[in-house]
UniProtKB/TrEMBL annotation:
Matching Pfam families: Sigma54_AID, Sigma54_CBD, Sigma54_DBD
Gene Ontology CC, one term: DNA-directed RNA polymerase complex
Keywords: DNA-binding, DNA-directed RNA polymerase, Nucleotidyltransferase, Sigma factor, Transcription, Transcription regulation, Transferase
Keyword field contains rRNA processing: no
The keyword Membrane belongs to this UniProt entry's keyword annotation: no
Single annotated GO MF: DNA-binding transcription activator activity
Residue ranges of every copy of the RNA polymerase sigma factor 54 core-binding domain listed in the record: 81-268
Stretches assigned to the RNA polymerase sigma factor 54 DNA-binding domain: 281-441
Taxonomic classification: Bacteria, Bacillati, Bacillota, Bacilli, Lactobacillales
InterPro entries noted in UniProt: RNA_pol_sigma_54, RNA_pol_sigma_54_core-bd, RNA_pol_sigma_54_DNA-bd, RpoN_core-bd_sf
Entry protein name: RNA polymerase sigma-54 factor
Family from the record: Belongs to the sigma-54 factor family.
Length: 446
């Protein structure tokens, strides 16, 4: 049997439609996505590459801007004094105490060694066995060093786990309830999981007494180190949109406060255009074209953010006019469809962009809410509204008999809001509310 193959070259015409992101288009998309700080950094980089481009910022703008937390008794004009008030880091605080309290001995060198393994929360992140291998010290020597380290401020520093952290704080607190230390030392798991009947029987203490100890433990900190090295000033947010309200009329405006812009170096351009060199002329034309494109992208960025903001205000009007600040279900797709934009463009326009209102500053993205259906009215109810209802129900519950997730489902169903138990649990956790077994109190009457 014989096979023969023949090959013949043919010309075929095939039409395909492709979407190619040019470098300029990619740059335009990036500019829309940037917040003020990122935009400023981007333009600064471009100004180093393009001699025709100069970055201009308003007088209110500073590259690293902060808002001081002034008290009423402080001199607001003397801002220099506020920078010197910043707390030292936890490591610096511990080192200064060690040098102040302990003389130069081998034991102090072990304390300093252990201090290097204290994390920002105040916990020791090396075991004594590992420390033995690294230092050559005995277990007892390192245990003595750790004991002295744990006596430093703040209370709880040097702990190796949460239980030890709380015990160290209880040990140094004269207001701690009786049995608090021994219960956390011997019955920590049962205490944390609220298996208090076992504790009540073992130590012959009422459930109300265990509740008192639990309330005290809630006042302790699981992260004793975080108070050190915390900046005294929060990064200032420059809003992109300004909302003013007058006689139930909402005015939406772009705000240039803090927003970087660019200016064209016309004098330099005119001077270089007089140079009779084709390479120079070509370079100048390229840089001017780049400037024009960036300027166009900046204008387009501002227009897009403003259009999106106006549509948000149009759909979430009651939030700005009513004291309860209700939010209705809203998706990126709805805004994109109305404004004839791509959904990803709307996403870029709302992420990291802020709106200043007479009652606070909000990220544009926060106005987008998923929703549930009210079976009676057939209207959508936003997830924010459902969360508020859950919060109110739990605030008003009988603390001796807290509402289970299923009971919350039943109560919302009674209001014709169909919601699953899983959704209730998700919303409750988002609100930082513990489950019913963890919310139960034993010092109240049923």
């Amino acid at each position: 049997m014989r096979f023969e193959q023949t090959f013949q070259a043919k010309q075929l015409q095939k039409q395909e439609q492709k979407f190619v992101l040019t470098q300029q288009l990619q740059q335009s998309i990036q500019i829309l996505q940037y917040n003020h700080e990122e935009l400023y950094s981007f333009l600064e980089t471009k100004s180093l590459e393009n001699p025709l481009l100069d970055v201009v910022v308003s007088a209110d703008y500073v590259g690293e801007s902060f808002t001081p937390n002034y008290s009423s008794s402080e001199d607001k004009s003397n801002y220099i004094n506020h920078f010197s008030q910043q707390e030292p880091s936890l490591f610096e605080h511990l080192i200064s105490q060690i040098h102040l309290n302990y003389r130069e001995t081998y034991l102090r060198s072990l304390i300093l060694f252990l201090t290097e393994y204290i994390d920002v929360n105040g916990y020791l992140k090396i075991s004594l066995e590992e420390a033995m291998e690294k230092t050559g010290a005995t277990y007892l020597e390192l245990l003595d060093a750790l004991t002295l380290l744990q006596q430093l401020d703040p209370a709880g520093v040097g702990a190796r786990n949460l239980q030890e952290c709380l015990l160290l704080q209880i040990e140094r607190d004269d207001t701690a309830p009786n049995l608090a230390y021994i219960i956390l030392e011997e019955e920590f798991e049962n205490f944390a999981q609220k298996k208090w009947a076992v504790i009540s029987k073992k130590y012959e203490i009422s459930l109300g007494g265990v509740q008192t100890i639990f309330d005290f433990v809630q006042t302790l900190t699981p992260f004793p180190g975080v108070i050190y090295g915390t900046p005294q000033y929060d990064t200032y947010i420059y809003p992109d949109i300004l909302i003013t309200i007058s006689d139930q009329t909402i005015l939406v405006q772009s705000t240039k406060k803090g927003a970087p812009s660019i200016s064209f170096q016309q004098t330099y351009f005119d001077k270089m255009k007089q140079v009779e060199d084709q390479e120079v002329q070509k370079y100048m034309d390229e840089k001017k074209a780049e400037f024009d494109w960036i300027q166009k992208s900046l204008v387009q960025r501002g227009d897009t953010i403003l259009r999106v903001a106006k549509e948000i205000v149009k759909r979430q009007g009651p939030f700005f006019l009513e004291e309860s600040r209700p939010l209705f279900p809203l998706t990126l797709k709805q805004i994109a469809s109305t404004l004839q934009l791509h959904e990803s463009s709307v996403s870029r326009a709302v992420n990291g962009k802020y709106m200043q209102t007479p009652f606070g500053i909000f990220e544009l993205r926060s106005f987008f809410q998923s929703g549930l259906v009210n079976q009676k009215t057939e209207e959508f109810v936003s997830s924010d509204t459902v969360k508020k209802k859950i919060q109110v129900l739990i605030q008003n519950e009988n603390k001796a008999k807290p509402l289970s997730d299923q009971k919350l489902v039943d109560l919302l169903n009674a209001e014709s809001i169909q919601v699953s138990r899983r959704t209730i649990a998700k919303y409750r956790e988002a609100l930082g509310i513990a489950g019913s077994t963890k919310r139960k109190r034993y010092d109240t009457k049923e």
